[in-house]
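Researcher: Hi, I'm a grad student and pretty new to this. My advisor asked me to get structures for two proteins we've been looking at. I'm not sure of the right format, so I'll just paste the first sequence and hope you can take it from there.
Model: That works fine. Here's the first sequence with its structure tokens right after it:
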Amino acid sequence: MNNLEPVKIAVRSLYDLQKVRIELSNRVAAHREMYGESVVLETIRNSAMLARDGEVLLAKAVGVAVAGVDIAEWLQAVRGVGPVMAGVLISEVGDPARFENVGKLWAYCGLAVERTCDTCKRPDHSKSVDNDGVEVIKWNIMDKDGVLYCAACNDGKSKFRGHAPRRSKGSKSHWHVQFRGKLLGVLAPSILRARGDDNTYAQHYYQHRERLLGKRCGLSPGEHKKTLRDADAKTTQEALQDNGCTNGHMHRKALRYMIKMFMQDFLVQWRTIRKLTVRPPYKEEYLGKVHHEAK
């Protein structure tokens, strides 16, 4: 086994045991409410407690396994990243040679930007495989005076808009769904909660949110209503800020930006340690656009 395999085994075992423990606890709570206490429920409850003890042991095993990986020292210096989350990052990303640039890593994590038509909701391109097994990309874009319109609508009005990847019923997700959940649902809040002036990635979050406040949002009030999470506002109009966006929407945008900056540095550091070529992101290499630095 290479030095990444023990990390993967320990992390997967930890979350497998955690899933079993949660299922046992939920079963106890549901049956106790319906049928009351019993010897069987007491046995299941004790089993769940034993599973929790096993989680503690596996978490320690993850920390030991992570310590043997070359990127561990850099991860330990990042505020908000503990041994278990470091194990998740190492085990899910795997060999950094898999990702030639950070754009491919963002796409794997579900952090890349997708473009869909405002009218028909079709993506800007589709992929298929021909009879020879070669992947064919069909673009759904019509360039008119430097503006990209939807070729399927062909009305000269329907434009493309970028957004985070979304799951759709009946189609397979082309990114790691569980990994994105860990990054945005566990790692991002952990980084924000970590105190210290040297928390660079938390600064990325707050500075990007300030930039969003001064930028007009592309969503309409009706589209914001679908994801409204402002408990103090009874209507969408009450929740909208001066820039036409809600606090919840700006919060999620800033979280994604913060994690993208973290994953970019993570890949650059790991490829540098492995003495691999480090390519800048697509926007920097081809379009000359550079991401803001945390100050």
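Researcher: Oh nice, that was easy. Here's the second one.
Model: And its structure:
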Amino acid sequence: MTATALRGAETEAPLRSWSLRLARPTVDLAAGMLRPRPFLGGPARSPGVVTQQILSSSVQRYQIEGLARGRQDHVVLAADASLIVSDLDQVPACPYVLTSTIQVFVAQFRLAGAMTVSSDGHSVNVDHRACLISRLAAGEERLVEIAQGPWRSVALICAEPFLARWGLAKSAAALLGEAGGGAMIAIPMPNAASEAIRDLLECRYEGDLRRPFVEAKLVEALCGALDAAGQSRAAPSTAFSASELRRVTLAIEMIQSAFDEPLTLQRVARRVGLNRSRLAAGLKTLFDTTFYDRLRQARMIEARRLLDRGDPVSVVAAAVGYESACSFSRAFKAHYGVSPSGRRRARG
């Protein structure tokens, strides 16, 4: 694969193996696999300062200060694969066209930020914590419209032989071979992927230890996403109307964002406009989870993050919706096999 290039819209350059081309005539962004540049940090798109830091031979970090603000890490996994880890407090509204001269696999794990992806008359709106799994055919053009606001995500872009080396090519092909309209599937973030991506984003390793840790967590997240997407497509979704599917997805988003509230199945069902039995059935059939399992998972992931940054146990308990530190400690130990204080000691 060739190197990344950042160039003005009027400058002619050879088409890279896969590229991002902004839909508006401001800046052209062509991206390769070996030497990435900041995706939202170009001077024409985001006036300000982009500071580059080389963390290792395969990891580069970009601190972006402008209309886009935050950090992006670019990890070279192989000659045919790269990873973009974005932790941006703010991005401008950013329409662009994604195109490729070769067939590539794209998996994006999104924790914050909204976007719409369109191809061949088929659009996918991603306005909740989600995984977007897709295959971009050679010569295909896909319009991506990012909404203004925060953006936190992990995106893998690779040639399909890279998946084969992980043993995931057949699973990806089976899933996307059935997907219509540009081979795109968006699903709410499954539990298995959510925790792995949290670990990846909060990686405390630097230098040459960073890449193997990131790659291991990416494989874990990708396995969880492919499994959940496959189950979702195999489920008898015809038993649920399009409106019900949207409401069940909204319930998932509510659990992920409001876990600090005293949520119950009945309360969430009422908020999304379903009865409790219908919501419970939708969660189990479509996402292979129960309401309380999903709520517990969301709370435990956030609790671990807060503990790791040094918050007191009592503060963490209240922040994730527990009335007492004792009940929180019991739940945390049941989930992770170690008490909150034990985890803090282990983390040093």
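Researcher: Is there anything I should tell my advisor about the second?
Model: You could mention this: The chain has two domains: 5-234, 237-347.
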